[in-house]
Design brief:
heterodimer; A: 7 helices; disordered C terminus; B: Rossmann fold; globular; binds adenosine-5'-diphosphate; binds magnesium ion
Chain lengths: 233, 251
């Protein structure tokens, strides 16, 4: 439905602020993810520190959004699309906060790795990351444009992330098998890979919320899953 | 099961049309809320359900209103009997200038419901209990009903209405003159009453409609724009006009 502005302007302003805060929080997450990936690929510990320190900003957004949502519910009693906006914002902010944490974890692991990683692993991780970044960007755009169709495409393509995650994990494991001295950074890389996959999951959750807030319906059925591997379960 | 079915109901006040082709089914033992901006025809529609519009000279009603599958707009309908079956509560509590006891015994008396004094005592007590007023007034039921607080007076009017066991209770903004606590007591009561009665409530408070009703109808400019489960209307209405109204984007 096409929304006219609210009769009460301050209510309209509060809903707009909630929307803007969420968009800004999402942009911070995109940056954190991009920088975390760059830091681990280039073994850049300074950039990793940046990611770790800026996670606080994302955390603050989450508590601020939670505050705004509680105030809206207590003081405005939002209904219909406004209610869905409010509830979706709360859930989306908690997914974004987790995305921030996972990016920060990648940065922390970067600082524990003191060697340049083999190119094939950097490439395998980058492939996941590029896809996840793309999904995150699209889902945030779908929120801005209130497009349930676009949100649904993100939701449906989560399985590609799973497939890339499996491939990457196999490569890390064969690297460890080839030389047990690789086990230390190898195990960090398993976690990094898993983190990227989970960022994909949170992105999919956000897609579900966008779909709900636009349509009032829930995306039906089992979320599509990639080829079954013990590793991504 | 539908207790009431309105079909193609039009209402005119003189030359001015107030309701346009209203079609609405009302489920038994549910609370149905009617919402919409003032002047949209909620009270007019409510009065169609017990032919209270008959008393307004210039008012002309057409269409079918069936209660228990019987068309109440037929010429030979016994209107007194109809209003016994379909009671009404108004915005301003209107107890008779009599004692609490007499306020309630009046109806059963003229309808010849009680055979003895003790039977009448029972009806009075039971009605006051069902209206959640008994504990507050049991020691002063022979004092004037007009001496009660606004909320108590409204519950007295509800007790008076249910004393003759109506099947349907119509309420026209029953809480708009009450404070929040008295309002909560009436709302709790409404939820109790629907076990035995079908309730239709007009309210200008959207949150009250959301709290008390299972179904909600939204009226605008004499038309029923949307009717459905309260849940659906307030979470995800189908019509843009409904959404604009309940989210405060109207006009
Ligand atoms: N007794 C009456 N005489 C003339 N017009 C009336 C009368 N009662 C209501 N109306 C008109 O009918 C329309 C609907 O009124 P009403 O049913 O009272 O609306 P609501 O209860 O939704 O505020 C309004 O335009 C109102 O002015
Ligand atoms: Mg009215």
């Amino acid at each position: 439905m096409n929304e006219k502005p609210h009769t009460v302007k301050s209510y309209e302003d509060q809903l707009k602020k909630l929307n803007n805060d969420l968009v800004e929080m999402g942009a911070n997450c995109e940056t954190a993810l991009g920088n975390a990936m760059k830091a681990i690929s280039t073994n850049d510990h300074n950039l990793a520190d940046d990611v770790i320190n800026s996670d606080m900003v994302i955390d603050n957004f989450e508590s601020q959004i939670e505050n705004e949502v509680v105030n809206l519910i207590a003081l405005r009693q939002p209904m219909a699309v406004d209610l869905r906006e409010t509830v979706a914002a709360l859930k989306m902010s908690s997914d974004l906060e987790r995305i921030g944490d996972l990016a920060k974890n990648i940065a922390k692991r970067t600082k524990l790795i003191n060697t340049h990683l083999p190119n094939n692993l950097i490439e395998a991780m980058s492939r996941i990351c590029i896809l996840v970044q793309k999904q995150l960007k699209i889902v945030l755009d779908s929120y801005l444009s209130r497009s349930s169709d676009v949100a649904q495409t993100v939701w449906e393509s989560d399985e590609q992330v799973d497939d890339l995650t499996n491939k990457c994990m196999e490569e890390v494991i064969s690297l460890i098998k080839s030389n047990m001295e690789n086990i230390e950074y190898g195990s960090h890389l398993l976690f990094v890979t898993k983190n990227l996959e989970r960022i994909g999951d949170h992105t999919t959750n956000i897609a579900e919320q966008v779909f709900y807030l636009v349509t009032g319906d829930y995306l039906e059925g089992e979320r599509p899953k990639g080829s079954d591997s013990e590793l991504t379960k | 099961m539908n207790k009431i079915e309105a079909k193609n109901v039009d209402v005119y006040y003189g030359a001015k049309q107030a309701l346009f082709d209203i079609n609405m089914d009302i489920e038994a033992n549910k609370v149905t809320a009617l919402i919409g901006p003032s002047g949209c025809g909620k009270s007019t529609f409510l009065r169609c359900l017990n032919r209270m519009n008959d008393v307004i000279d210039i008012c002309k009603v057409s269409g079918v209103v069936k209660i228990n599958d019987y068309d109440i707009n037929q010429k030979d309908t016994d209107v007194v009997r109809l209003r016994e079956k379909v009671g009404m509560i108004f915005q301003k509590p209107n107890p008779f200038p009599k004692t609490i006891y007499e306020n309630i015994s009046y109806g059963p008396e003229i309808h010849g419901i009680a055979q003895s004094k003790s039977e009448m005592d029972n009806i009075v007590e039971e009605s006051l209990r069902k209206a959640a007023l008994w504990e507050e007034v049991k020691d002063r039921i022979h004092e004037p009903g007009t001496g009660l607080s606004g909320g108590q007076q409204q519950r007295l009017c509800i007790a008076r209405t249910i004393s003759i066991k109506p099947e349907v209770i119509l309420m026209d903004e029953p809480c708009s003159a009450l404070d929040p606590i008295a309002t909560a007591q009436i709302e709790e009561l409404i939820d109790e009453l629907r076990k035995e009665h079908t309730i239709i409530i007009v309210t200008h408070s959207m949150s009250q409609a959301a709290r008390v009703s299972q179904n909600t109808g939204f009226f605008h400019l004499g038309k029923l724009i949307e009717v459905g489960s309260t849940d659906k209307i307030f979470k995800n209405p189908t019509q843009q006009q409904t959404q604009d109204y309940i989210t405060g984007r109207f006009g």
